[in-house]
């Protein structure tokens, strides 16, 4: 460990980035770009710190993670890090000034490859093979060291070493001193437990004896702050001495308990040790208040907070603090204000601890989770409230209420996410609004199904979202139009038309245009009559525009070639009396299975379906003589098949097979998976129908329009 010691803030910053890189390596692997990026961030911070220290060590010991002499458990994934390093036999990782970015990335590559690097030896070999400098494994190893710097096994320690440990505190810095007399008494107190280990019936008496002796020791310590040194301890030094004394006693008791030399320490003993620190804090606060009666309550609360190592101990300290401050003349009103200030501190600390624990459980660092909350505080608040209501209500308590709660939240989230989705923010993205909402709602419901909720609730949520889907789409269209209108400060009529034609629906007067949008246009200076005209024009333009051109698979004929082959079959029939039939396909019902809504088809949507239908027909074609082409129905096309040497009754078998194929096929319209119910008409040719190609096409289409799906 270097002579220059980093402070706690630096240690936590480094630990946060180390934890992020470690988790990324653990989840994605050391070679993933995410891991490399987080490794680079960790390396950059290390370089800054290594400018002031020669070597920096991260170590694991007794189930905790340390950076130098700072425990960083609250910001790192302790179980994950300790398990990985302990399995490999790695106690510490040290970094010195020879460190390079490649060295750091190599370290995390090994961490993310557990199967390839199962022990420290294989890791060391790989570091040597890659000629990595600046990274050292197990350079710092935890061992107990006595005052004369002799390394010993911790299992051989007994209560006799406690005296040496306490004496070592005298040189621990800041002039801290614990009297030799007190050290000897502590060793004697703990020795009482040793003699009683073999005689279990006397354990209770032994614990009581230890408790009484610690009480006596506490009275002497509080009453006599002076030590052998002529310089008295300052209040902060006195308090730190008490905490070190408490820590040393508990550590020695733990070691003796592990080695079988001491029975389990009774809870009363621990309570008495806590009381020592409480009494010192009360004494110091009384002196602080006595010396400055005008001290503010907020300032006094800050002093108490800094004195407490754990804010949770406040509830045990308050009764003693109340008596002490009242004895010094503090008014009850001021004491109530003091309690309120301390409660704020308690609530803040508990919240931070809960957030840190939650972040660890989901594999994030504390800092990352805080940044996520800062980025979207409103959504984070909704999620927290939703989770709280789920937890309080319980899944089985009221399934209807739970379903309504989840449905409402998913709808709001979907609308927000859809407006920010790439397909919607692109040019012409208004036509993708319905697809974006549908996709997002499905994804959320699918993920919901993997959580600890009953299938009945998930199904009810899906059905509720489906029933509300039309209203949801209408609402998001209004939001999208308003955003686009506000972006154009003074939109022209052409701009308004280009916006509205992306959201209106064909076949319904004003469909897709809410009263809110109409009101917005009126505010912009349009009369009610002109608004109706603009909407009608937008509907007509939307119905005629085709953004998906006809795409013919190889072997499929465009309209002119299809007409040529049809004309050839008509002439062959006239000359040789050969038979043939035609089969025309259109789209009677197109249903969104998620919402069960029947879609109003535009020309562009028909064009999309025709492209997919032609590919399906090619797969279903069984005879090389059959001809697949298109029938031109401006501004779009419909699939048309010519079946040579096939009469109408034989063609019905093909019709049946194609209907089944359409029912089982998946079609996609503007990103939405839909179900298509086609109308497939069969017409056997006779010269009575028509002798010219154009006339026969008209007869064929009229016959098709009279058919049922």
Your description of this structure?
This protein is an alpha+beta fold and 709 residues long. It has five domains: 8-142, no CATH class; 145-291, no CATH class; 380-472, no CATH class; 488-544, no CATH class; 559-705, Reverse transcriptase/Diguanylate cyclase domain (Alpha-Beta Plaits, 2-Layer Sandwich), CATH 3.30.70. It has 27 helices and 13 strands. It has helices at 8-28, 33-49, 78-88, 101-111, 120-129, 161-168, 180-195, 203-223, 235-258, 267-291, 297-307, 314-327, 332-361, 366-375, 377-393, 399-420, 422-425, 433-448, 455-467, 469-487, 493-500, 515-523, 528-544, 559-576, 603-620, 648-664, 693-705, and strands spanning 55-61, 64-67, 70-71, 92-96, 135-137, 144-145, 151-152, 580-592, 597-598, 627-633, 636-644, 667-669, 672-684. Strands 8, 9, 10, 11, 12 and 13 form a six-stranded antiparallel beta sheet that branches. Strands 3-2-1-4-5 form a five-stranded antiparallel beta sheet. It has a two-stranded antiparallel sheet with strand order 6-7. The termini are far apart.
Question: Which features characterize this protein?
Answer:
709 residues; 5 domains; 13 strands; 59% helix; 10% strand
Quick recap:
The chain is of the alpha+beta class and 709 residues long. It has five domains: 8-142, no CATH class; 145-291, no CATH class; 380-472, no CATH class; 488-544, no CATH class; 559-705, 2-Layer Sandwich (Alpha-Beta Plaits), CATH 3.30.70. It is built from 27 helices and 13 strands.
């Amino acid at each position: 460990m270097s002579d220059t010691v980093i402070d706690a803030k630096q240690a936590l910053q480094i630990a946060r980035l180390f934890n992020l890189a470690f988790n990324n390596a653990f989840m994605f692997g050391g070679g993933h770009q995410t891991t490399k990026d987080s490794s680079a961030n960790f390396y950059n911070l290390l370089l800054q710190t290594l400018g002031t220290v020669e070597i920096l060590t991260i170590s694991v010991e007794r189930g905790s993670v340390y950076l130098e002499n700072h425990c960083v458990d609250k910001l790192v994934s302790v179980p994950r890090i300790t398990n990985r390093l302990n399995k490999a036999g790695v106690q510490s990782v040290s970094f010195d000034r020879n460190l390079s970015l490649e060295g750091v990335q190599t370290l995390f590559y090994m961490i993310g490859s557990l199967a390839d690097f199962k022990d420290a030896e294989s890791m060391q070999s790989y570091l040597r093979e890659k000629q990595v400098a600046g990274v050292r494994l197990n350079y710092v190893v935890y061992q107990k060291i006595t005052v004369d710097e002799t390394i010993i096994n911790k299992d051989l320690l007994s209560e006799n070493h406690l005296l040496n440990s306490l004496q070592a505190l005298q040189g621990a810095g800041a002039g801290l001193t614990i009297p030799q007399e007190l050290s000897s008494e502590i060793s004697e107190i703990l020795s009482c437990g040793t003699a009683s280990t073999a005689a279990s019936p006397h354990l209770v008496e032994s614990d009581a004896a230890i408790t009484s002796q610690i009480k006596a020791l506490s009275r002497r310590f509080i009453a006599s702050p002076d030590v052998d040194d002529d310089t008295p301890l300052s209040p902060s030094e006195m308090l730190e001495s008490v905490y070190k004394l408490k820590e040393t006693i508990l550590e020695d008791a733990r070691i003796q308990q592990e080695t079988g030399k001491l029975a389990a320490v009774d809870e009363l003993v621990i309570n008495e040790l806590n009381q020592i620190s409480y009494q010192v804090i009360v004494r110091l606060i009384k002196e602080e208040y006595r010396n400055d009666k005008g001290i503010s309550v907020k300032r006094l609360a800050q002093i108490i907070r800094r004195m407490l190592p754990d804010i949770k101990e406040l509830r045990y300290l308050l009764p003693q603090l109340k008596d002490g401050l009242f004895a010094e003349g503090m008014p009850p009103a001021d004491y109530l204000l003091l309690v309120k200030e301390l409660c704020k501190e308690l609530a803040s600390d508990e919240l931070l601890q809960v957030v840190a624990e939650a972040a660890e459980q989901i594999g994030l660092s504390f800092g990352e989770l805080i940044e996520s909350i800062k980025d979207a505080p409103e959504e984070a608040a909704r999620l927290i409230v939703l989770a709280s209501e789920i937890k309080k209500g319980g899944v089985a308590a009221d399934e209807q209420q739970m379903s309504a709660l989840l449905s409402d939240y998913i709808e709001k989230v979907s609308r927000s996410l859809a407006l920010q989705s790439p397909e919607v923010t692109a040019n012409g993205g208004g036509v993708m609004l319905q697809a974006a909402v549908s996709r997002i709602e499905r994804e959320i419901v699918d993920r919901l199904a993997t959580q600890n909720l009953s299938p009945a609730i998930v199904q009810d949520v899906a059905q509720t979202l489906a029933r509300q889907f039309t209203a949801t789409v209408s609402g998001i269209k209004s939001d999208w139009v308003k955003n686009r209108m506000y972006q154009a400060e003074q939109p022209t009529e052409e701009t308004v038309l280009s916006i509205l034609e992306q959201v209106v629906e064909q076949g319904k007067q004003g469909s897709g245009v809410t009263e809110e949008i109409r009101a917005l246009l009126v505010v912009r200076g349009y009369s009610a009559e002109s608004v109706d005209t603009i909407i009608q024009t937008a509907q007509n333009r939307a119905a005629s525009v085709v953004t998906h051109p006809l795409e013919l698979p190889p072997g499929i004929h465009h309209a002119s070639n299809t007409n040529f082959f049809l004309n050839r079959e008509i002439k062959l029939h006239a000359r040789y009396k050969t038979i043939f039939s035609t089969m025309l396909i259109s789209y009677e019902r197109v249903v969104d299975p998620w919402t069960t809504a029947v879609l109003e088809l535009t020309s562009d949507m028909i064009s999309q379906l025709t492209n997919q239908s032609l590919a399906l027909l090619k797969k279903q074609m069984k005879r090389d003589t059959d001809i697949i082409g298109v029938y031109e129905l401006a501004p779009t096309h419909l699939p048309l098949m010519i079946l040579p040497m096939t009469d109408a009754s034989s063609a019905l078998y093909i019709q049946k097979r194609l209907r089944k194929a359409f029912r089982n096929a998946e079609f996609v319209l503007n990103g939405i998976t839909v179900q298509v119910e086609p109308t497939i008409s069969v017409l056997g040719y006779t010269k009575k129908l028509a002798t010219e190609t154009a006339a026969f096409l008209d007869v064929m289409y009229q016959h098709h329009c009279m058919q049922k799906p």
